[in-house]
Amino acid sequence: MRTILKIALGIIAAIGGFLDIGDLVFTTQAGALYRYDLLWAVVLGVIGIAVYAEMSGRVAAVSGRPVFDVIRMRMGFGVGLLALVASTFVNLLTVAAELGGIAIVLELLFDALYSMFVIAGTLALVGIVALLPFGGIERFFGYGGLLLFVVVATVFHQDPNWGDVGRGFIPSLDSSTLYLYFVVGVFAAALMPYEVHFYSSGAIEEGWTEENLKENRLNAFLGYGIGGVLSVALIIASGYLFHPIGVEPNDLGTVALPMQGAFGETGLLLALGGMLFCVGGAAIDSSFAASYNLAQFLGWEWGRYKGPQKAPRFTASWLVFLLLGIAIAESGINPVEVTEYSVVFSVVALPLTYLPVLLIAGDRSFMDEYANGRIAGFLGWLYFAVILVLAVAAIPLLLATNGGGG
Amino acid sequence: MATVIIAALTLAASGCGDLSNDELNRGVESLSALAGQGQLVASGVARDATKATYARVMAKTLGEQADHEAEKLADATLEEAETGDQRRAAVAVAGEISSLLSELQTYPGDERHGALVQKHLEEAQEKADAIVAQLSGDAP
Amino acid sequence: MKGEGEIYVVHRLLDEQICDSEGRRVGRVDDVELRGDPPRITALLVGEGLYPRRLPRSLARLARRISGPERWGANALRIPWEEVDELSSTVKLKKKAEELGLGMGDDPERWIVRRLPWN
């Protein structure tokens, strides 16, 4: 019994930072615009990140190589540099959006200046990272994110037409460009690369070996599966409330309205609290991912487990990324808009960081008996194809729909 | 001569500042959406089922969006002159929504105000929806 | 065939992480020095000064402007092949980083990080 609890807690810790401002925004908008019709896209994205994360975690545990080590080693300096530049750009936008998201939620809770909260929130994050060990940081944000289960409770309270909900899980392709844009957006928000880069480096932070492979698989599928359940619930809750009255969710605060509707102030506070932990965790994960990628590509010492003394450049780069994120968040651009760009650009860059991991995960000379089996290989390549299609379609759709404005 | 033609074509094509029927439609739909969301916030206040800070910040954000929409609608020149009435009505509705949300922003904890704002926002939304219906009726 | 084997080793060596005898990460194999006929690996080369070499011609000039010319001992270091202890998922060296002039970028002496509150 105790092992089950331990595993469950470990899984929850692993998913802190998966649900980020991008998920919150895209799922709420998708529900409002298309009710339950995009549920299948969420599921597709969640399975995708589970596949990518499982491979990355396995590669890290067996060969000691995190994602950007794999990328540079397998693809060489030139392509690796391109991947680094693209990924750093995306991560920077993501960090800025998450820091802005934290400030928005704090503003909704305490009604002081957003610009003050951007800085206060970031300082709090630095404090948490400084005080807690790596595992503690994960647990802090992972468990806090559980508050968002109020969304699941809201769905049951709403008691939607389950037949309609069920139909949403069957893939359907509307020809409207806006619908296709949201297919890409919802999928991409679920399959954010920073989360996998963080996860794979985290495996090494925690000293994983072949013995952790089962845990790796549980984290990937069960962990992100739980995140997927929350994303699904967000779409349903939003679709049920917003779609009939034509609400257009353009703000982060709107995400919490269904929970306020179902459970009043308690529901609202649980929702905002959960959002705070989710976005906070995502800010940590994305800023760490940016530093991990840079340090790993260049060969610097890296890792929270090494400490600032032994990995000063890694630490300094992390602080710089936070500062740049603050600058963008304070610049007056709406974090919700920044998120739209970070999500779309991240799927464009995704093939570059996904393919090397897929290749190494299937390569016996690196992985011995732990290389991709038939199922992992099939899923891995299937998703590569899906990702390629979406990567090509993403920017045209962004332009055609005027940034999801319709 | 060629430069003049190109310039004229570009200007005509960009229609900068021109409000087509579709865009006017979209604008009024946004107003309806804002009113709808405003009602949800207001109903929370009315039932004392929300946090005042949340209601105030939401009312402020929605109000800003309503103002922005009002400006867009008021400033643009209409592509089709027949929609002039609808445009005037739309700007008026935007103004109503904006001031109702201001009310909510000022009294985010007052249940009575919340109930009143909710009712009036519902009326404003109905007006907006009526304009949309008229525009769709007019559209070829 | 020996020639192909060498090329494979060079290929696998290139871009690999380098660790010193204590397991500290001290850079990557940015280039490999080959001498003689048939070519033998005589040294590993590390440093930003070597990046322009690795880029296609069009970008190399821009890169050269950014990283500066190759300054041996500063932004380009030479690790003789004899210093390599073993090759696994990293290139492990026989000596500590300081002895080879590596990892200077992460030398704590040079950073204000030391003076941060939690140290």
Description of the structure:
The complex is a heterotrimer of chains A (406), B (140) and C (119). Chain A is 80% helix and 0% strand. Chain A has helices at 2-15, 21-34, 39-63, 67-110, 114-131, 134-145, 150-158, 162-168, 177-190, 193-205, 213-242, 257-298, 307-310, 312-330, 335-361, 364-367, 374-400. The longest helix of chain A has 44 residues, at 67-110. By secondary structure, chain B is mainly alpha-helical. Chain B has a two-stranded parallel ribbon. The two termini of chain B are 36 Å apart. Chain C is globular and about 55 Å long. The longest helix of chain C is centred in the N-terminal third of the chain and has 12 residues, at 2-13. Chain C has 119 residues and is an alpha+beta fold. Chains in contact: A-B, A-C. Chain A binds chain C through residues 63-65, 69, 72-73, 76-78, 80-81, 130-131, 298-302, 308-313, 315-316, and chain C through 14-18, 24-28, 30, 46, 51, 54-56, 59, 89-90, 103, 105-108, 110-111, 113-114, 116-119.
How many structural domains in the coordinates of chain B? 1
Task: Report the β-strand fraction of chain A as a percent range.
Answer: under 5%
Largest interface: A-C, 26 and 32 residues
User: Which superfamily, in CATH terms, is the homologous superfamily of chain A?
Assistant: Amino acid/polyamine transporter I
Named at the architecture level, the CATH assignment of chain A is: Up-down Bundle
What is the strand arrangement across the widest sheet of chain B? 1-2
The number of E-state strands of chain A comes to 0
Question: Low-confidence parts of chain B lasting 5 or more residues at pLDDT below 50?
Answer: none
Shape of chain A: globular
- The count of β-strands of chain B is 2
Largest sheet of chain B: 2 strands, parallel
Overall body shape of chain B? elongated
- Gap between N and C termini of chain B, in Å? 36 Å
Order of helices and strands of chain A: HHHHHHHHHHHHHHHHH
The N- and C-terminal alpha carbons of chain A lie at a distance of: 51 Å
The helix/strand series of chain B, from N terminus to C terminus, equals: HEHHEHH
Mean pLDDT figure of chain B? 86
Q: In this structure, how is the largest beta sheet of chain A organized?
A: none
The CATH topology of chain A turns out to be: Amino acid/polyamine transporter I
